[in-house]
Amino acid sequence: MRIYTRTGDKGQTGVIGGRVDKDDVRVEAYGTTDELNCFLGQAISAIDAAEERFADLRDDLQTIQQELFDCGSDLALLKPELRPYKVTADLVDRLETWIDKYDAETPDIARFILPGGSELSSRLHICRTVCRRAERRVVTLSKQTEINEEVRRYLNRLSDLFFTVARTANHRHGVSDVEYIRSPDVFRRKSK
User: Fold this and answer.
1) Which residues does residue 50 pair with via DSSP β-bridges, in sequence order?
2) Which of 3.90.550.10, 1.20.1200.10, 3.60.21.10, 3.40.630.10 is the CATH number of 12-179?
3) pTM
4) What is the mean pLDDT of residues 26-35?
């Protein structure tokens, strides 16, 4: 199979159910989701495969990579009647479970956190911000056409998970989060 097809030479690309311009908001939405998946792969590569204390995190992040591909697939679906959506509410519910699990492991915070600390944490913060951008692109798309609303919910929860696991990565590395020193106390303490 050849990688190049020449079918996009005139500025259009194939989606599930037809063709659209390469700068279509649909392409921007699933393209940004693909970009997020690349950054997530980079973050995963920063986890030493032999380091057991990160095995659960690595496994969960690899699962998310698969699901981000599902998000992109649902966003590329021009005609929803062609097949069922892949991203469902139970995936969003599971993200919430993971957020709670990882958050319980980290110390309380009162102020905003700056990206940084360990290398893994920094990479996960990049994932968080790209995820927020992907969510914004999906919101734009949803104003123009029918979408799988669970993709938008998934990306919203996923950015929260990236924030949480970035803090978990710092905690497991024994590195403090970087607080925004001019921040007033804005977060409530966790009830333990």
Assistant:
1) none
2) 1.20.1200.10
3) 0.92
4) 97
